[in-house]
Design brief:
Length: about 100
């Protein structure tokens, strides 16, 4: 089965219909069982829908590649999860 990392590298080609049917089947199976990749797929679809509906300007191939690079870099950043310090009950013994 395809890994999360592998999927993140080819998600654009998957959405654009540029992959073989065998690979697409693996991706669909992965997305069905992996909530993180399903979320990434949905976000990517929303982003593409937004651009298709709202950005009807022509850009150069260089600009397109630069934009895609920024998007992929953002997807690769780890999620920042802030943990609040936990209060320890006075009844609880500490060592």
């Amino acid at each position: 089965m395809i890994s999360c990392y592998q999927l993140s590298q080819i998600i654009s080609e998957f959405i654009d219909g540029e992959l073989s049917e065998d690979v697409c089947v693996e991706i669909r199976q992965h997305i069905a069982f992996c909530p993180d990749c399903r979320r990434e797929h949905e976000q990517f679809l929303k982003l593409l829908t937004f651009f298709h509906c709202n950005c009807m300007i022509q850009i150069t191939e260089t600009t397109h590649l630069e934009l895609m690079q920024v998007i992929f870099e953002e997807f690769e950043k780890p999620l920042k999860i802030e943990h609040k310090p936990r209060k320890i009950s006075k009844k609880r013994k500490t060592s």
